[in-house]
């Protein structure tokens, strides 16, 4: 899976992380917190000025105490959120809906934080994985169909710059992956459309056969994104197909049965 940028606009934001992320995808529900203020009921006016001053002091003290509690709670919550979201995860396994389908249930996004650990447990069986160029994903060789091999040969021929990343081993290099957002790879609109056609074919094959290669192959969010992209190209409002300047952020993923 990769982030595809069109004229600096991310059209695959649902990744990633997706599903996630999601993906990704894929999404996360935002919780909007609204502060509630207590109603202060003032006593009826007392004739004694000293009494009024005492009431005022008591109310002020209570208000200050409530404000202090709310402030402390907010700071504590903020510290918790910072600690929760600022620490990188060692592994980032992504689950997609794979009900009634046989195949790897989850897939792993390879990042600098988990590259060493994954390689240490797979160095002896790296040859058992094939590589899908269009979505930068390692898959079990035994799950690669003859049809898929034909498509991957096409991508290798017309997008050698992507194949070179895999052939050089940079796809499993933590430093390269960490710098990927700053080292976008220039492709073209045809690359993205070709990937989407293949994604739809994978989805169709999985639904018809009851077997999938990667769990993201069955991700409805990814399929909807690809349909929207193909729709934009096939049915432009002015009758002229769009010509985007397309850049790809390399994101290596691996699909396997065991974690």
TrEMBL record:
Keyword Transmembrane: yes
Keywords on record: Membrane, Transmembrane, Transmembrane helix
Source taxon at top rank: Eukaryota
Keyword Membrane: yes
Sequence intervals crossing the membrane: 61-81
Protein name as it appears in the record: Uncharacterized protein
